[in-house]
Amino acid sequence: MNTTYDVRFSQIQQRSNGGASSFVARWRVAGKERSKSFRTKGLANAFMSDLRQAAKLGEEFDVATGLPVSMAAPPSSGPSFLEFAQSYALRRWNTSAARTRETDAYALLSLIPALVRDAPRRPSAEALREVLRIHALLPEKRRAALTTTQTATLHWLERASLPLSTLGEADVLRTALDAISVTFADTPAGANTVRRKRAVLHHLLEHAVEQKTFSGNPLDAIKWTAPKAVTVVDPRTVVNPTQARQLLDAVPKVGRKRGPRLKSLFACIYYAALRPEEAADLRQKNCTLPESGWGLIILERARPQGTKRWTNSGETHESRSLKHRADKETREIPIPPVLVAMLREHIAEYGTAKDGRIFRTGTDGSYSSSAYSYVWQEARKLALTPAQAASSLAARPYDLRHAAVSLWLNAGVPAPEIAKRAGHGVDVLLRVYAKCMDGQQEQINSKINDALDP
């Protein structure tokens, strides 16, 4: 590369062509005139600021391109990691749920700022993540307009991003793994977070293999041990039936409106093992509620909460297919008389939303996770002893689902039937709830004895 320190800068000029304006940045390198056009004056100013700062720092300029060495395009075939990560995120957009999109983006917010060259005037990590979050990792129609500073930040990132091909090098991959092992506050990340981000990186590189960038996934060759994640339910979180009833009875005492409206939602999580997002989308047409005896819920949809920028509708809640199930696939759950009675009373008292949802706010909306979590925590204070309230016992509404499945297992209900009702695979069910199957030792030993000595 032929370089020089002979650089001179000119003023930005505005041009008009058929009513459309452009702004031209001009400078000279080794006596040769250079120029670059931009749609806005802010972009042109940001570009010229980069050039001036590079010259001020004593950086050499490439005579062939007219750019500082740090800005000159490196000899590389193929896309940068930023470009490939953008195409990866956009390619998966139409087939992914909002939470999957957010998970992908969350991993890329760690990886993209880490996989860059050491170039002058590096923006802060938070500034880099911001332009990725609101602009670069979103479809064109979802992108926010960038300020002049944000535009310069994205411009820096586009120049500094490493070529995708460099991820075939062990030291670059280790940089990536280091990046996903810490939080944005630079503290050790949780095991489940690290595993999720590593899975995104692995999947992204699988796409690179498909496009012939690599002959095999380079991540498979790295000797790296993922942190051990907890994959089983902690029995200390599981309430017994008496505690569950006390908690449900305490819910209506929280607030004048919200608590009474949420008691039956929490009851669905406990008595039918619904996930909170499944209860949120439960509709009257999904329920068979006889005057006496057992009823039936036929789940069709769930209503998870997401961040607006990642949902299809741009709303916080949107209805979608059940977790781990094909579109339009349903799940049947027989429900005990106690829950049948609660749902009948709830519908009689509060009616349903215009779309038939049973659980709704006073304005026909969906309760946010923070809203129902607040009610739950207040109910715990009312129903539990101070020591229990300070413990992990039923710490989250979701723990009611764990309590339901644990109760069914310990009652001797066959695992395939429980898995069917809870929406699990049998293998997952037995692994996740292994520590919650208490009180069966003597029964199991007896069965073995009977088999050994018929």
From TrEMBL:
Location of the region described as Disordered in the Swiss-Prot/TrEMBL record: 307-327
Keyword set includes Cell wall biogenesis/degradation: no
Tyr recombinase domain span: 233-446
Compositional bias (Basic and acidic residues): 315-327
Any single Pfam family the record assigns to this protein: Phage_integrase
Domain of life of the native organism: Bacteria
InterPro entries membership: DNA_brk_join_enz (IPR011010), Integrase-like_cat_sf (IPR013762), Integrase_catalytic (IPR002104), Tyrosine_recombinase_XerCD (IPR050090)
Entry keyword set: DNA recombination
Protein name per UniProt: Tyrosine-type recombinase/integrase
Organism name: Nonomuraea ferruginea
